[in-house]
Design brief:
Strand content: 15-25%
Number of helices: 5
Structural class: alpha+beta
Distance between the termini: 65 Å
Helix content: 40-55%
Strand order of the largest sheet: 1-8-3-6
CATH class: Mainly Beta
Order of helices and strands: HHHEEEEEEEEHH
CATH superfamily: Jelly Rolls
Number of strands: 8
Number of domains: 1
Shape: globular
């Protein structure tokens, strides 16, 4: 089969992949197909080269990022400590949709990346124009942040237990 036909019939369209990724993000999981389309329409797409900063620890938080392709490292302490390595379908920075505080870590493109960005002004606009949709997103956002907090608490508890045994 020629490359032309392969591209048409075998490869998923960029737009379809965005929807597939969005439905796997907890913040957007409970949205209807119509609501997902409205979210997809307001996402920004940004490209980053390998080793390029997406944001630095201490920067103002503008919104959350969803990895469409590539890998991202989350680091702290002037990029000396790797907190997480994320890949396609993962998301980060969601706390900045609710909080005005500076970024608590840095995000660096480990490889060339395409990121989908959901910024706070767009969330505020959704809340104003469509309160039902805004409420759905905010509730799932709160749930997501709560789940991450519980996971962090469990990791700290395990670390404290290990440190206590070594003393």
């Amino acid at each position: 089969m020629s490359k032309l036909w392969e591209n048409i019939f075998r490869k998923k369209r960029h737009s379809d992949r965005i929807e597939e990724i969005l439905v796997r993000i907890p913040v957007f999981q409970d949205l209807t197909p119509r609501e997902l389309k409205s979210i997809k329409a307001i996402l920004y797409q940004r490209e980053y080269k390998a080793n390029e900063f997406i944001f630095k620890e201490g920067d103002a938080g503008l919104g959350m990022y969803i990895i469409f392709s590539g890998k991202v490292m989350i680091t702290c302490d002037n990029d000396k400590q790797i907190l997480a390595e994320l890949e396609e379908g993962d998301f980060f920075g969601e706390l900045s949709l609710l909080d005005e505080s500076p970024r608590s870590a840095s995000a660096i493109a480990k490889t060339q990346c395409i990121l989908l960005c959901f910024f706070k002004p767009e969330l505020l606009d959704i809340i104003e124009r469509n309160p039902k949709l805004g409420c759905k997103i905010l509730l799932k956002l709160a749930w997501t942040i709560g789940e991450r907090l519980k996971s962090t608490n469990e990791q700290l508890r395990a670390l404290n237990c290990r440190v206590g045994k070594n003393e």
